[in-house]
Amino acid sequence: MPPQPRHVHPTAPLAPRALLPGDPGRALLLAQELTDEPRMFNHNRGLWGYTGTAPDGDPLTIMSHGMGGPSAAIVLEELCDLGLEVAIRIGSCGALDERLRLGDLVASTSVIAADGTSRALGAGADLLPDAALLERLVEAADHAGPTVSTDLFYDPVAERVDAWRTAGALAVEMEAATVLAVAARRGIRAACLLTVSDAGPGGGERISVQALEVASRRLGTVALAALSA
Question: Which of 29, 31, 88, 173 is deepest in the core (most CB within 10 A)?
Answer without folding.
Answer: 88
